Every structure is written in structure tokens, then in C-alpha cells.
């Protein structure tokens, strides 16, 4: 939720540490630094041409470039932390475990994500009995997808 507040909400470190009961602003700065460092490592793996690296270096303060990475804009437009519609439906149905529920509520109520709020409004209009088949279909498709991923991982490891 700290990363969500910083990258999606654009919160300042001083507001973030108070909201989450952290020691001080430096705790938030450490979390932010590690997240940006992780993004940089992921970009290095995903972008062999290296076009993302200068932008991320700018954001992490690891080097001066003329490029600027709009983390907040990219986070929102890419819907990086948006919960799947399935999770919002489970929240409404009261079938979401505590920790995911905390995040989904934070995303909806404090980040006020327009996309997810639209999903919530749409699902709220459905009768509770109408949600059960939806949840069943989503669970079945998730299981099918995960099985297909495991199968393709096995094929790659056999090669």
C-alpha cells in the first residue's frame, strides 16, 4: 500500500509514513528506493535495447539524463496495481481474505481509482445471487490459465 500511495496517489513521504504508522519519512524513502531499484532491474531484463534504463536512472537519482520517467502517470495508465474485477467481486461478496481486502479497499477508497470504482459500481448493481456464477466462471478460468502456464513452463524446461 505504501508503493500504491507513492506511485498511484503521488503522496509525499511525510504523509505516507504517518498514514501507515512507519518510523519516519526515511522508512518511506527506503521503500521507494527499493521499489525503483527493482523496477530498474526488471527493465534491464525486459528491455535489452536499454531505452528504459536512462529514464529509470533519472527517477532513482543514479545518473543525470534528459529523459524523465513519469512513474505516477505510467502506474495509473498501466493500471499496475488495479485489482482484477474478480477481486472486487469477491470483496463485495465478502469472500476476500483480510490482507487482499485491505489493499483493495485502500485502492478503491483512498486512491479512488476511476477504473476500479467503475468495476465496483457495475458489480454493486448485480444481485448477490448473480455474482456467484460470475465468481465461479472467474475461478475456473483462472485455474485453466494457471494450468496452461505450468504446462508451458514444463515444456520450456524440457527443451
Residue fraction in strands: under 5%
Distance between the termini: 40 Å
- Computed Rg: 19 Å
Number of domains: 2
- SSE succession: HHHHHHHHH
Per DSSP, the total helix count is: 9
Structural class: mainly alpha
- Model regions low in confidence, pLDDT < 50 over at least 5 residues: 62-69
Estimate the helix proportion, in percent: over 70%
Shape: globular
* Strands, count: 0
The overall pLDDT average reads 81
Largest sheet data? none
Question: Keywords for this structure?
Answer:
single chain; 159 residues; mainly alpha; 0% strand; globular
Descriptive report:
It is built from 9 helices and no strands. The chain is an all-alpha fold and 159 residues long. It folds into 2 domains: 1-81, no CATH class; 82-159. Helix 3 runs antiparallel to helix 4. The chain is globular. The model is unreliable at 62-69 (pLDDT under 50).
Q: What would a concise description of this structure say?
A:
With 159 residues, the chain is an all-alpha fold.
Amino acid at each position: 500500500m505504501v508503493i500504491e500511495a507513492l506511485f498511484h496517489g503521488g503522496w509525499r513521504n511525510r504523509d505516507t509514513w504517518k498514514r501507515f504508522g512507519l518510523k519516519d519519512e526515511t522508512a518511506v524513502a527506503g521503500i521507494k528506493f527499493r521499489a525503483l531499484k527493482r523496477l530498474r532491474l526488471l527493465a534491464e531484463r525486459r528491455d535489452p535495447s536499454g531505452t528504459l534504463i536512462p529514464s529509470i536512472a533519472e527517477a532513482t537519482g543514479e545518473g543525470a539524463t534528459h529523459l524523465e520517467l513519469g512513474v505516477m502517470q505510467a502506474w495509473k495508465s498501466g493500471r499496475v496495481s488495479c485489482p482484477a474485477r474478480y477481486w472486487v467481486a469477491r470483496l463485495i461478496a465478502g469472500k476476500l481474505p483480510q490482507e487482499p481486502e485491505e489493499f483493495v479497499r485502500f485502492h478503491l477508497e483512498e486512491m479512488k481509482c476511476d477504473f476500479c470504482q467503475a468495476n465496483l459500481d457495475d458489480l454493486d448493481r448485480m444481485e448477490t445471487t448473480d455474482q456467484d456464477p460470475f465468481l465461479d466462471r472467474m475461478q475456473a478460468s483462472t485455474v485453466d490459465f494457471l494450468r496452461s502456464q505450468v504446462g508451458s513452463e514444463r515444456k520450456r524446461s524440457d527443451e
